[in-house]
Amino acid sequence: MRGFGFYTRLAWQGMCKNGRVYLPYILTCIGMVMMYYIVCALQNSTAVETMRGGGTVQEILSLGQIVIGFFSLLFLLYTNSFLLKRRKKEFGLYNILGMSKLNLARVLLLETLLTAALALLSGLGLGLLFSKLAELSLSLLLSSGPSLHRFMHRTTGQNRTPLASSTAMFISPSGSLSSVSHLPPQRRMAVSPT
Fold first, then answer.
1. For site-directed labelling of 152, which of 56, 97, 125, 177 has its Cα 20 to 30 A away?
2. Contacts (Cβ under 8 Å, ≥6 apart) of 14
């Protein structure tokens, strides 16, 4: 694939140059992955299952996975649209300088891939660290005493979390990409109100 390094570098530089705008989006993605992993880990935990009322808690957490996934998707859609509105001028400049809409889509796809990789690695790592803390807090909340089980995690949360998170992260830029590609270059160059 010719020019792949150029577009990857362009995507990385775009993310770095717009760091103040990109940071909330990346933190949102990391937080979404971490929360979803923690809920999956608690829902599949044998320690939670053996607690008094643990079965009920696990049923509620299975519904919580759906709720967290839905609201995470909405929040990602909002932050991604905010991000792309801030960058319309940059995309218009790329278009005027001769970058085709396909190449602009390639840059946005690479930015999404870089963001997804960063968010999945960081979110899974933080989720793994905080899942045991959440388990201990839940055991104290249910008054069953601290869980003295050794640190053990099931791979169910690790399998579900990347799938759900990747789906949400790739759905959010797709709508924004179509809105950017349909605008004429003069409209893309218009300065958005701040």
1. 56
2. 87, 90, 107, 111
The rounded distance, in Å, linking the Cα atoms of 138 and 9 is 44
Amino acid at the residue 174: S
- Give 173: exposed, middle or buried? Use CB within 10 Å, 0-12, 13-18, 19+: buried
Q: Please state at what angle helix 88-96 crosses helix 54-86, rounded to 10 degrees.
A: 50
Domain boundaries, the chain: 4-181
Report how far residue 68's alpha carbon sits from residue 162's, in angstroms, rounded to the nearest whole number.
14
Summarize pLDDT for 110-162 with one digit per residue, the tens. 888 888 889 999 999 999 889 888 888 877 777 655 555 544 555 555 566 66
Written as six digits, the tokens of 118 are 């960063």
